[in-house]
Recover the amino acids of this structure.
């Protein structure tokens, strides 16, 4: 089956994407999830994730870690080619890791890799990385792209080792990809892929039905309904994010845990799922989504089973028996979050609390809500990037720069520090679970669900794989041959 | 008795197909807006999962939306909000427009020149961005949207009013009023204003329609009336995603916008025809 | 000649005013291009570095003035999010918006003139009344709603065109034009309805003038009077309207482009506003303002060409 | 007999009850004759004239009686035949020279228009020659310049001359002049009157001259007809009417002329 | 003349700036013109269209600024009846409102008192009370002109400028209006500057006539003398055109 590309050499599909790749194409600098999931096909690191969220060898054939967790040795796969035809050498690896760690500029492009003490080329096929202190998550950063040392400007000349090579980019219109014939692993099946930017969510269905796109990742449940009976299969997965009504713990009523708990009791995740995601979401009770099977604790879903009376009495205890008013800030471009907020407004009425929705632009949300923390409550989904528990839980530390909910609990800080400083997997897992329990108990925010993810794929295409992180694996797609 | 004769005179003066149609449509819309303040058949934000996308029926004559909310009630509320926004917008625009335009047109000179240049620059500035700026300053709420739109409307009104004042100021009756000893303010507001009313009326109507459409446009971009409150523009833009599953969701607010705009333009047509 | 120099100076002043307003607007509205680029993962250090790299740490007025100076040298800066010269980005999209506007304008004129003449000829008769009501209805339809209806009916039901199947002008020019037909209809219809209304009124007004009677007295038939005498005079007030309409159409295309999935100036404007990519926004808005001003200049010139009485130009 | 109007009645139907504005008017006009019509404002002078010229709005009014022009009844012949006469055999000049010319059409084109419509076989050059000749006949200083000018570039008096030239290019048999001098100032008025007399002399055109200025009528017309409220009060030889008016109304009119006894 | 001078203008010069093709051109409409108006007289001002008659009137009232020269007035409330009866009445208002306006501004009469004054003034200008509720558009030209006269008289002025008050009217109405003006002037003794281009009308009506030509006074005199032996050729031409003097060249 390895040579399907050869069978249908002229195969071409168009995939709709919601945003442009507008933050550049330098793999070490891009941040937008939408860009990273596309570049997943173009660049590879020493390791890469598979669809189960496990790290598998990529440009490194194998690796070894010392017992102290400070030295890692990577053996490179031989004969791997860059898209420009040159061969991947140990020098390229050293160059790329140094660039990420900011060894020349002093400013690491990947913050976590500032921890790297040195990167050395042991021989032509071996690279050794030394860390300043042990880091359980280090390997997940080894998925970052390896680029040729000779490439002066990665921004404009996009040269990676992935199954697809970059052809062109017309801003606001499209990106063209072409399968890479000299790929080291299983080659892509489809020759040409056009990524078409469909920024208006309302026109997605029309474009799909009208035939100007063959596939669109992440459509809503209503769009799924609209596509019923058409040429499209719907693949269902999860978004892998923590959707919650995030409460600003510094804002007056929400500074009282009782009030936060009352809100949690008032919110019915199942009702929200029914309205927002056609009943398909997965309920969550803390800051972890089920894809992290290791840490996900289903029992936390029952901490606050909907109970209006309980909520009211909690409010009374907190001195808000006559309710209060607050506003929910929601970025207007995320329809599911807006819809969630609308349902929450109705649910709040039941406990005598008046909630108002304040729609803002995504950018205003970023700067005012996320950065300045100038809000009362907000509905948003938080994802894990990289795919580590730390990425999800770090932000609840009292002094974390991204602790936008202003959560503050010494108990939590201690648990988190414990988790981060151990290299023992079991101990770490236990500490993380403790963290999640604290978040749930203290009602840091009202956790709702992991949203379902629907992918519309034309019936002529098969092989779509869901990844538990931001990645679209185009190489696994193939055309149905009849 | 007096009222009756007033009504009689009114209809004697204003008649014709456009006027009557316009008056009837606007009357119904006004009534709907008025009733919606006190009562709608269902709560306009009341959700009901079992009625999601229910098609029009006797209980819900316009059907239900994606939350199972009664579209008819929402349309009523939408008419009220849209009506209020458009009215206030036009009021702000007209009022400021009259003050600026009258001053510039009547006095002329340097000030006129400078103000009109500023006016032109504002005119060339996209109103979406202007609204965005104002809303960022004031925070989003339907009241602030109204203010933002109102301010965005000032330049066009000021321009129209100014040219009308310029025309009127050149007429002899204005000189005659000056000779009588009437002050400038009295001349501007008591003598001239009634004469530009017909032009003003029709631009107020056009302005009203533009306000309805602009509000719809802003809601389409997410900076209009905030959910879960309804406005016709907001409903229309929400409904777009469901055009296949629930075409009625888009149809009714869309029709209402058309009818409302139609009513007002007929009315304005009727008024200018008669005067 | 002196008159045009003066006009051009005004134009420059207006553009500078507009550009300043845009700069000020970005100073006021919340949001930060650096944060926008880095997203939720931004660390304070990385943010500071990027802001420095983008030159955002300089005072507002310094940034504005240096931008202005660069502009006069013909350099509109580099897009903050795309790292591409703004000129190149806009240059790409300009043909799309221009084509859209020209097409809409052509439709507007081609449809409105004969319709208005026909209505004026049968003024107050059944045909006129019917068209009149239809015209009022068309005037009341928001163009994006019309866009949705058109895509639904002609795209989804009748399959006359492929919604979202935009074809780039560089790939297939006829295909490009064909795709833009529906969107330009959506943009043109309300303007066209307005033109019909204005033109009909204008024709009727002209038809009452004495020179029309003179024309009849020489033995002209109704249609001869219409086309030889009335129409040209009746179009004079329309010139201003059409001039403003061009500006409106560019602005109106922002929303319609969204509906039809056309990557024109409107889309660039909207995404750049939400990315806080102000060099791009700045350039797009200055461009729109430029078009508005140039249109008013063209209207002025056209006036003089059509209306020989307009030699006098004391109005500022 | 060039023109014979018999029992002409014009009725307006745009209000609730029909209004007769011209009632049973009878008169005739010979070749080369100048007939003056006087009467107060609103007495139906223009309506009568427009009926003859075929320029009455057809929608809201009704005409009765007959108007024979060279034995053809203008009220009965088909529209196209009437159009053939308009501008060719019957020409009109109007009261307001400011508005009676198309503001956006060059003078030359307007002067030539009757030829353009009625003499399709003529070449452009010939047409221009005729137009220039007539512009000269109406005593224009620089016909070539005027030919290429727009109406607004001319003074009121010049425009009225242009109107006369345009009316005369096709050498009509009847010229209807509806208050051609009212809008002009005294000195110019006198010149236009002189010009009309000259043209009448030159081409033997019959003129129907309408005015409410009695002293003017006295200067120009051979015969006079006095109208009031749509009826002819008195008609006859000019000098007779002015010296010994019979009707009360005519007397009042004549008495209202300010007298200057030097 | 032993009479008192009401207005004395010396060296009146008025210029207008015109813009043609973006070029400024300055047009001198009145040039170094002297004018004296005596109390109680009717001064006629004649001249062809565009000679500056209306401009002079407006200059005397201060509506048009002077480029140079001085005007001394002894009257506080001059009034003007404008040339165009169609634009000089506020079209949006009823006749009663228009005529009451000066009373509202200058007196403290009650509503009914004002009504009475208006009603009696309407009678004086020969119109009935039913015109009170009409708007200017519902009046004929002659009626409008009478309203203008009435409104001007309402303020008991010492001086009225009448700018071609009858040229838009037909002969019979002209006579009526002039009659009225003459009668009222007899009764109230105000001063009138009567502008016209019709020398016939002016002959009987004016005490003195002034001929204006190209912004300058060509000739002044008592009508009978002026008409009998005009000195200025322009005056002669005017008289000929009006058919008062026989054309000598014919
Ligand atoms: N549309 C109309 N409806 C009713 N009556 C009309 C209409 N048009 C004109 N009239 C009346 O017809 C009558 C005759 O008008 P005509 O124009 O012939 O008067 P005239 O003698 O030419 O007056 P003038 O000297 O003012 O030109 C007038 O009384 C006028 O009011
Ligand atoms: N506001 C103005 N701007 C420029 N030129 C003006 C202005 N007002 C009058 N004029 C010019 O001044 C000259 C005299 O005008 P004026 O109105 O005084 O003439 P008039 O003697 O009253 O003429 P008529 O008999 O037609 O009323 C005219 O040539 C006119 O074009
Ligand atoms: Mg007439
Ligand atoms: Mg004058």
């Amino acid at each position: 089956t390895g040579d399907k590309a050869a069978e249908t050499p002229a195969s071409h599909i168009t995939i709709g994407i919601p945003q442009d790749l507008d933050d550049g194409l330098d793999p070490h600098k891009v941040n937008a999830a939408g860009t990273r999931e596309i570049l997943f096909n173009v660049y590879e690191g020493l390791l890469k994730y598979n669809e189960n969220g496990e790290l598998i060898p990529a440009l490194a054939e194998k690796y070894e870690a010392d017992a102290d967790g400070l030295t890692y040795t990577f053996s490179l796969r031989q004969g791997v080619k860059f898209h420009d035809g040159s061969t991947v050498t140990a020098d390229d690896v050293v160059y790329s890791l140094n660039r990420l760690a900011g060894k020349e500029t002093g400013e690491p492009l990947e913050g976590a890799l500032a921890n790297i003490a040195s990167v050395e080329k042991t021989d032509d096929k071996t690279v050794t990385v030394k860390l300043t202190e042990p880091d359980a998550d280090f390997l997940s950063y080894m998925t970052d792209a390896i680029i040729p040392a000779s490439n002066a400007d990665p921004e404009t000349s996009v040269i990676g080792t992935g199954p697809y090579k970059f052809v062109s980019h017309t801003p606001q219109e499209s990106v063209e990809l072409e399968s890479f014939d000299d790929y080291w692993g299983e080659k892509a099946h489809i020759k040409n892929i056009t990524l078409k930017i469909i920024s208006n969510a309302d026109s997605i269905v029309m474009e799909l039905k009208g035939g100007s796109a063959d596939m669109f990742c992440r459509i809503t449940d209503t769009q799924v309904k609209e596509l019923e009976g058409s040429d499209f299969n719907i693949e269902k997965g999860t978004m892998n994010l923590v959707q919650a009504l995030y409460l600003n713990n510094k804002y007056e009523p929400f500074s009282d845990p009782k009030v936060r708990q009352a809100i949690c009791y008032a919110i019915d995740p199942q009702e929200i799922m029914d309205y927002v995601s056609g009943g398909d979401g997965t309920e969550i009770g803390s800051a972890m989504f089920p894809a992290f099977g290791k840490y996900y604790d289903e029992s936390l879903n029952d901490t606050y089973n909907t109970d209006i009376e309980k909520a009211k009495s909690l409010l009374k205890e907190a001195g808000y028996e006559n309710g209060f008013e607050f506003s929910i800030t929601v970025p207007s471009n995320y329809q599911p979050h807006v819809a969630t907020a609308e349902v929450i407004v109705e649910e709040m009425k039941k406990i005598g609390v008046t909630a108002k929705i304040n729609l803002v632009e995504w950018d205003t949300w970023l700067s005012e809500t996320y950065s300045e923390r100038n809000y009362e409550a907000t509905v948003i989904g938080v994802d894990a990037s990289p795919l580590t528990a730390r990425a999800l839980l770090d932000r609840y530390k009292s002094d974390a720069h991204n602790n936008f909910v202003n959560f503050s609990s010494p108990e939590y800080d201690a648990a988190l520090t414990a988790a981060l400083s151990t290299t023992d997997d079991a101990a770490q897992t236990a500490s993380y679970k403790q963290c999640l329990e604290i978040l749930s108990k203290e009602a840091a925010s009202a956790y709702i669900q992991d949203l379902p993810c629907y992918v519309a794929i034309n019936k002529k295409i098969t092989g779509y794989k869901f990844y538990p992180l931001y990645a679209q694996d185009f190489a696994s797609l193939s055309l149905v041959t009849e | 008795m007096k009222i009756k004769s007033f009504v009689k005179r009114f209809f004697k003066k204003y008649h014709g197909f456009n006027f009557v149609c316009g008056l009837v449509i606007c009357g119904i819309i006004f009534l709907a807006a008025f009733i919606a303040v006190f009562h709608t058949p269902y709560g306009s934000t009341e959700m009901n999962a079992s009625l999601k996308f229910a098609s029009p029926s006797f209980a819900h004559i316009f059907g239900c939306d994606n939350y199972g909310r009664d579209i008819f009630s929402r349309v009523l509320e939408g008419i009220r909000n849209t009506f209020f926004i458009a009215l206030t917008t036009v009021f702000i625009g007209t009022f400021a427009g009259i003050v600026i335009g009258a001053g510039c047109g009547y006095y002329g000179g340097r000030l006129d020149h400078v103000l009109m240049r500023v006016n032109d620059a504002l005119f060339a500035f996209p109103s979406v961005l202007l609204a965005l700026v104002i809303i960022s300053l004031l925070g989003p709420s339907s009241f602030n949207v109204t203010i933002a739109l109102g301010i965005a409307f000032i330049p066009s009104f000021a321009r129209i009013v100014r040219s009308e004042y310029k025309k009127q100021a050149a007429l002899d009756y204005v000189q005659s009023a000056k000779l009588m000893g009437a002050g400038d303010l009295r001349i501007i507001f008591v003598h001239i204003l009634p004469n530009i009313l017909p032009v003003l009326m029709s631009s107020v109507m056009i302005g009203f329609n533009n306000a309805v459409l602009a509000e719809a446009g802003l809601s389409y971009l997410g900076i209009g009336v905030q959910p879960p409150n309804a406005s016709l523009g907001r409903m229309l833009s929400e409904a777009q995603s469901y055009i296949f599953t629930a075409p009625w969701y888009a149809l009714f607010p869309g029709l209402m916008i058309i009818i409302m705009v139609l009513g007002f333009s007929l009315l304005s047509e009727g008024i200018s025809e008669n005067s | 000649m002196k008159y045009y120099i003066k006009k051009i100076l005004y134009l420059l002043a207006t553009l500078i005013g507009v550009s300043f307003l845009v700069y000020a607007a970005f100073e006021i509205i919340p949001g930060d291009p650096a944060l926008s680029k880095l997203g939720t993962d931004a660390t304070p250090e990385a943010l500071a570095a990027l802001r420095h790299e983008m030159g955002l740490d300089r005072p507002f007025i310094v940034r504005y003035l240096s931008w202005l100076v660069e502009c006069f040298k013909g350099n509109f800066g580099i897009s903050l999010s795309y790292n591409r010269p703004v000129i190149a980005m806009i240059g790409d999209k300009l043909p799309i918006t221009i084509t859209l506007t020209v097409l809409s304008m052509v439709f507007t004129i081609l449809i409105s003139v004969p319709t208005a003449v026909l209505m004026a000829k049968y003024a107050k008769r059944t045909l006129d009344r019917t068209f009149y009501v239809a015209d009022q209805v068309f005037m009341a339809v928001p163009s994006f709603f019309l866009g949705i209806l058109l895509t639904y009916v002609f795209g989804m039901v009748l399959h006359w065109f492929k919604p979202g199947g935009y074809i780039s002008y560089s790939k297939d020019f006829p295909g490009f034009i064909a795709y833009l037909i529906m969107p330009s209809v959506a943009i043109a219809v309300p303007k066209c309805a307005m033109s019909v209304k204005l033109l009909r009124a204008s024709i009727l007004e002209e038809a009452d003038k004495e020179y029309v009677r003179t024309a009849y007295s020489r033995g002209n038939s109704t249609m001869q009077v219409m086309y030889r005498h009335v129409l040209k005079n009746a179009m004079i007030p329309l010139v201003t309207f059409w001039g403003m309409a061009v500006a409106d159409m560019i602005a109106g295309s922002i929303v319609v482009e969204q509906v039809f999935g056309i990557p024109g100036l409107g889309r660039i404007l909207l995404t750049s506003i939400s990315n806080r990519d102000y060099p791009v926004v700045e350039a797009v808005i200055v461009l729109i303002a430029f078009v508005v001003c140039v249109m008013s200049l063209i209207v002025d010139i056209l006036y003089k060409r059509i209306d020989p009485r307009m030699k006098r130009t004391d109005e500022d | 007999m060039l023109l014979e109007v018999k029992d002409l009645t014009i009725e307006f139907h745009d209000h609730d009850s029909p209004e007769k504005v011209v009632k049973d008017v009878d008169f005739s006009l010979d070749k080369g004759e100048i007939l003056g019509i006087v009467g107060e404002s609103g007495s139906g002078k223009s309506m009568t004239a427009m009926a003859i010229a075929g320029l009455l709005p057809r929608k809201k009014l009704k005409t009765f009686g007959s108007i024979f022009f060279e034995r053809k009844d203008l009220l009965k012949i088909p529209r196209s035949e009437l159009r053939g006469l308009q501008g060719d055999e019957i020409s009109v000049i109007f009261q307001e020279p400011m508005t009676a010319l198309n503001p956006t059409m060059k003078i030359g084109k307007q002067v030539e228009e009757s030829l353009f419509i009625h003499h399709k076989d003529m070449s452009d050059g010939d047409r221009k020659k005729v137009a220039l000749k007539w512009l000269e006949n109406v005593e224009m200083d620089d016909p070539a310049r005027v030919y290429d000018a727009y109406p607004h570039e001319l003074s009121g008096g010049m425009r009225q001359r242009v109107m006369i030239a345009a009316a005369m290019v096709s050498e009509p048999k009847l010229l209807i002049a509806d208050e051609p001098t009212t809008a002009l100032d005294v000195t110019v008025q006198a010149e236009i009157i002189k010009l009309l007399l000259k043209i009448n002399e030159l081409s033997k055109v019959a003129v129907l001259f309408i005015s409410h200025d009695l002293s003017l009528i006295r200067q120009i017309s051979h015969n006079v007809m006095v109208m009031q409220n749509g009826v002819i009060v008195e008609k006859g030889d000019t000098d007779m009417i002015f010296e010994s008016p019979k009707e009360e109304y005519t007397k009042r009119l004549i008495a209202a002329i300010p007298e200057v006894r030097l | 003349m032993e009479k008192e001078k009401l207005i004395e203008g010396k060296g009146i010069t008025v210029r207008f700036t015109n813009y043609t093709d973006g070029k400024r051109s300055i047009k001198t409409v009145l040039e170094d013109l002297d004018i004296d108006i005596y109390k109680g007289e009717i001064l006629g001002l004649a001249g062809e269209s565009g000679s500056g008659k209306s401009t002079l009137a407006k200059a005397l009232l201060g509506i048009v600024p002077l480029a140079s020269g001085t005007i001394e007035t002894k009257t506080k409330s001059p009034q003007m009846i404008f040339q165009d009866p169609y634009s000089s009445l506020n079209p949006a208002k009823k006749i009663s409102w228009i005529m009451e306006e000066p009373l509202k501004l200058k007196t403290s009469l009650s509503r009914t008192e004002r009504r009475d004054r208006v009603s009696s003034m309407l009678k004086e200008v020969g119109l009935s009370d039913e015109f009170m509720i009409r708007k200017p558009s519902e009046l004929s030209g002659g009626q409008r002109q009478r309203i203008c006269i009435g409104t001007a008289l309402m303020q008991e002025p010492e001086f009225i400028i009448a700018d071609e008050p009858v040229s838009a009217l037909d002969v019979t109405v002209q006579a009526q209006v002039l009659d009225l003006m003459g009668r009222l002037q007899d009764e109230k003794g105000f001063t009138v500057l009567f502008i016209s281009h019709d020398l016939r009308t002016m002959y009987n009506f004016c005490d003195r006539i002034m001929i204006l030509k190209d912004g300058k006074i060509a000739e002044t005199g008592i009508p009978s003398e002026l008409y009998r032996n005009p000195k200025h050729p322009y005056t002669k031409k005017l008289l000929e055109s009006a058919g008062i003097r026989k054309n000598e060249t014919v």
